[in-house]
Amino acid sequence: MTNHWIDLKNADVILVMGSNAAQNHPISFKWIMEAKKNGATLISVDPRFTHTSSKADIYVPLRSGTDIAFLGGMIKYILDNKLYHEEYMLNYTNAAFIVGEAFGFTDGLFAGYDAQKRSYDKSKWAFEMDEKGVPKKDPGLKHPRCVYNLLKKHFERYNTKLVSDVTGTTEAQLLEVYKAYSATGQPGKAATIMYAMGWTQHTVGVQNIRTMAIIQSLLGNMGVAGGGVNALRGESNVQGSTDQALLFHILPGYLPAPPASFGSLAAYIEKTTPKSNDPRSANWWQNRPKYITSLLKSFFGDKATDQNEFGYGWLPKLDDGKPYSWLDLFDAMYNGKIKGFFAWGQNPACSGANSNKTRKALAQLDWMVNVNLFDNETGAFWKGPGMNPAEIKTEVFMLPCAVSVEKEGSVSNSGRWMQWRYQGPKPMGSSLPDGDIIMEIGLELKKLYAKGGVFPEPIVNLKWDYMTNHAFDAHKVAKEINGYWVKEKKIGDVTYKAGTLVAPGFALLQADGSTSCGNWIYCGSYTDKGNMAARRDATDAPNKIGLYPNFSWCWPVNRRIIYNRASCDPKGQPYNANRWVVKWDAEGKKWVGDVPDGPWPPMQNPDGSQREDGRYAFIMTKDGFAQLYGPGLNDGPFPEHYEPLECPIEKNLFGKQRMNPTAPVFGADADAHATCDPRFPYVCTTYRVAEHWQTGLMTRPQPWLLELQPQMFVEISEELAKLRGIKNGERVKVSSARGSVECTAVVTKRFKPLKIAGSLVHQVGVPWHYGWRWPNTGKEESANLLTPSTGDPNTRIPESKAFMVNVAKI
Amino acid sequence: MSKSFFIDTTLCTACRGCQVACKQWHNLPAEQTTNRGTYENPPDVSFNTYKVVRMHEQVIDGKLQWLFFPEQCRHCIEAPCLETAADPEAIYKDEATGAIIYTAKTKGLDSKEIIESCPYNIPRQAPDGTLAKCDMCNDRVTNGLMPACVTTCPTGAMTFGNREDILKLADQRLAAVKKTNPKAVLIDAKTVNVIYLAAYDPALYHKNAMASATTGPGMTRQMALRKLFQPLTRMASHIG
């Protein structure tokens, strides 16, 4: 979230799309209902009328996988009717930037496409630079290649008629949503978007969110109270695990993972540190050298020296251009290329797309270590449906671990709040906290590598001192993440002593090896003032918008609303005086309110003259502006509607390119897919219910929860039920090109067939919480037996939210 | 002064935290259920289930509404079940809170008669005839806590407190909701201590949302007769 949960109450309009917050984030509705009591409009856009829709002022359906078409129509509506926040757009977005001549878009493809590699040469999308190397701008927005005009041209095709044909949403419904939402382009108004996996789990996942980011930027909804682009995280600590880089392409704090071709620290810094020639762009990532060096110091301690590039050579490197995502790892495992596997706190036999492939892949392993609370479908895969234990050689080790309440430590919620939790009951039996298991494995590895081995340095030199009395110490790790001064250093009049914690924040981190920091964005979370995440002061800030700055701690530097200087006009005065986030105090020469995005004064003086010491509001982008045109992603600088891998229409009505030309496609037998195939005529999506969590490992064995949602089900419309002769409550078979699942039919008015390109298209939906291990009938199985092996080309998250199935009586 | 619940169905998202919290506090076993083609489960209130969130898909003025109704005992001010039982050792009212409490001695009552006396069809019997239903978490309430369902409700759909304050709150919310839903009502507010706010005709939420006409709260002839003889029966039970 750029904003945070409580801030939802400040919105004038709340759009919930790609999420069913009422079921999956129930507490969010405390704040949504507060907003509604204050007169806010709640809009729900979803293929299915959900619990969220039941509370909405406006509900409209759409076909799964057509969000860019839906939102692209809104961009056109905003531009055609000039509903954007003009001053904001001109000052805070790259609307006026001029794009280079090499950029183009024809037949559904952007310039620079290489069909062989299924990738783009992104240099074709670059901005046109002036003699100083700064992007050229046309503040009058007249230049035909300025972003504003290119945006207009790109979305010209997204008229309500065509959008309606693709999405199935009627033109009247589209206009109802467009009108209500874009009314917040008025200065001082705010609209927020709440999305979750319904947006990310697509071959166009990142571009779904990009489209909304464009809308929010046009309407001036970024940085304001009640605004932002807000990802609702699906687990209590997903935000934390992402921040700490539990993904293949990043190191902690969103530093890129190095590929093999970046052979030295200098090369890594050179290649990954953005350079801006505009003195008014803060270009915050120019500090990358400080963060990577401090991270290396944290990894390798005293062994990281100036002479050995702080141990950069010991970091694992990615093969250039090779992805190591979930889909790719299980593909490699399926093809016998991975022999050992730690399944740690996860249940891939049920949780990942195309579970049949995953389960077969597990059978290719020599060994698997299953670290979990209970045995699950993953650890027990060898005796699962369709498996012959006699033929499976995989040796499975079970390491029982402690549940979250049995451990001390922090979780970071969707709003970036790092919240400390104390230990409740002690771990049961021989189960251990994950931290202890990791520490013990690390110590054993160090012992073994001390005797020799291939390339022992990364392990032998790893600083590994996070235990107290032979037990994992969460405080030691938290302090390591915050960072220490490891050498005495004098900056100005202040001398920082070695061994002290870095405070107040990452502005003090150094590139010369005098600081160590496990994660720069968490710098300031644990200081000599104590554990900031453990704070529980419920006093609000002076602006009284629910920031509660002394309750827990929020990255970065306890800033509760990111890009908050954009909530003010260029003179530093808030667009909304009643729910202001920050404002410039000209006498005190400082910002007051939330922690501002940097200390620099506003862009203009009170008389409107420009201040050279001001900095642009969007400090994390190289040029300092919100990117209506974003030349960094793998699949294009503008979002474009592409059909899902499996879809019900032969052609993409927006262009010649049917599916995302850069989305991964896998070729094994188990990766079968079928588009416009009469055997699989219905659009299917997956989702969660309030009563179960993820693959249900922790909830299916709970009798009180199983009582509420006892069985796998499929929701179908009354019309489809009639067509297929299916009665409410009877068991049916749902099948895709990859597998099938038995379900109880829930016949409902909440799904309706949609008219897509003149034909009637039925949609169905299934929850993905079940698995054969429990309930012990073995009949309630995972929805991921149905989902396809493809995903987003940027994140490679699987496309679990739009695929084709059949539903038949058993 | 008695205590009351206010259940604002316009804020209920049917997360069913209340159903689980109720089972947890009362340590009630789960029922063996199946999916019956609906999210609603268990199928009814029972000896082991005091609370069920009812869900109904209704098309109102051409628009689909999914109406949620967390059903439970209303703790009637003049409780027909109590009057029908006429045995304070089996069913009594805690005058301090207004909770209508069933004891183990309900086993000796004519359970069919008690269930039929309820205008909301709430009490349910165990195989041995003992009756049970929501007890207002009277043990929690008399110790200064909120009922378990109220504590767990994430949206504030359920509130609990002194009847006077709750009535005031209910009136305020009714006035606010009426601006967009002119047919909104407080259901049977004068006669019960569990006051629901419904945005539409209560019958659309659940068949027993409103007191049935035949056994409305207040006096049926049978009950009036019993009441007349109450001192006598009470005395008899004491002698017995």
Features:
heterodimer, A: 810 residues, alpha/beta, 6-stranded mixed β-sheet, 5-stranded parallel β-sheet, globular, B: 240 residues, alpha+beta, two-stranded antiparallel ribbon, 10 strands
Report on the structure:
The complex is a heterodimer of chains A (810) and B (240). Chain A is of the alpha/beta class. Chain A is 21% helix and 16% strand. Chain A is built from 20 helices and 35 strands. A six-stranded mixed β-sheet of chain A has the order 29-31-30-35-28-34. In chain A, strands 3-2-1-8-9 form a five-stranded parallel β-sheet. A three-stranded parallel β-sheet of chain A has the order 12-13-14, with no helix packed on it. In chain A, strand 4 and strand 5 form a beta hairpin. The longest helix of chain A is centred in the middle third of the chain and has 17 residues, at 434-450. Chain A is globular. The two termini of chain A are 44 Å apart. With 240 residues, chain B is of the alpha+beta class. Chain B contains seven helices and ten strands. In chain B, strands 8-1-10-9 form a four-stranded mixed β-sheet. In chain B, a hairpin with a 2-residue loop joins strand 2 (52-60) and strand 3. Chain B is globular. At the A-B interface, helix 2, helix 19 and strand 31 of A face helix 1 and strand 3 of B.
Briefly summarize what is shown:
The complex is a heterodimer of chains A (810) and B (240). By secondary structure, chain A is an alpha/beta fold.
Content of β-strand of chain B: 15-25%
- How many strand units of chain A? 35
- Backbone CA Rg of chain A: 26 Å
The strands making up the biggest β-sheet of chain B line up spatially as 8-1-10-9
Helix content of chain A: 10-25%
Average predicted confidence as pLDDT of chain B: 92
Number of strands of chain B: 10
- Can you tell me the residue ranges of chain A where pLDDT is under 50 for at least 5 consecutive residues? none
Span between termini of chain A:
44 Å
Task: Compute the CA-based radius of gyration of chain B.
Answer: 18 Å
Give the largest interface pair and sizes: A-B, 39 and 35 residues
Q: Approximately what portion of the residues of chain A adopt beta-strand conformation?
A: 15-25%
